[in-house]
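Figure 2 data, in text form.
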Amino acid sequence: MPRRTNGLSRRQFMRRTLGSGAAISLGSKLAGSAASPETKEDGRIIIHVAAPAGPAPYGAPAELSVPFAPRHLLDAAKMIVLAPSGGPVLAQFRPSILWPDGSVRWLAVVFEPEFGPGDYVLKTGTPRTGPDLVRTEDGLVRLDSGEIVFTVSRTDGMLEMFAAYGAGGEVTPILQGGAVGDLFLTRHDDKVFRASLGSKERKVIIEEKGPVRASLRLEGPCRSEDGEPLFNSIIRCVVYRGRPELFLTVTWINTTDRPSEQVRDIRLHFPFDFAPERLVIGCD
C-alpha cells in the first residue's frame, strides 16, 4: 500500500486511492494457492496445501504468511520447505513484518508444491537453490518465468517486450517496441492522461527476487499531452516460476489538492493483434 499522505486520516487516505488488477495469460493457470500453517508441539510447522496447488505450468504455487514469536527467527534465509516425501522444494522467503528487536514477526512464504496437495514442512535447513526470475541486462529489467519474458527499461519503466517461449525454447515476441503498453485515465471533461507521458519521472524498483516469484514496481505520475498531472500510478508486475501468466496490479493515488476527482474511464492498454483467450480483471 502506498505511504499515507501527511495530515490525512485513514478514511481520507483510502478515499484517495484506487486499486485494480489484471492477469495476462499465455496459457492456463490459477493464481497462487493459499496454504494454512499449523505448529506442532515439537516445533515443526506443517503447511496444509490444497488444490489447485501443484507443479507448473498448470498447478498453482503455494503462498502463505507464518507468524513467529519474538527472537525466534532471526534469519529468513535459513528456512526451507520439505515436501511430503521429505526432500526440499524450491521456496522463497521474505520478512513482511519485524518485531522491535529485528526478529521476524511475519514471514511471507511462496514455494513450489511439486507433489501437489498435501502436508509440507517449514523448518530450518540448507535451502534448495534456483536461478532468480528477475535480472538486469543492457539497460533493461527482465522478468523471466521460463514460460514468458517481460522486459522494461531501467530508466523510464516503459514496457519494451512481452514474449513467450516456443516449443524449441526460442523466445517469440508478442508485443515489442515503443507502443507496447500504457495506462490511460480519461477525466469527466474528456481530457486524457497517460502513464507513458510521465515516464521521465517514473521509478523502477525490484521489490522481490528469487527462484519462485519475482515482483517489479513501476511508480510515477500520469500526465496529459500539455503536461498536466492527474494521479500517480503504482504498477506491480509479478511472475511465478514455470507459469505462463503475468500478473499486474495498479494502484492510483490522488495527488491533487481536491478530495476527489471525477474520472470517466480507466484503461490498461496492450495493442494485441489477436483476441485473448482469457481476460481476468478486478477492482477494489
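Caption note: Residues 1-17 have pLDDT under 50 and may be disordered.
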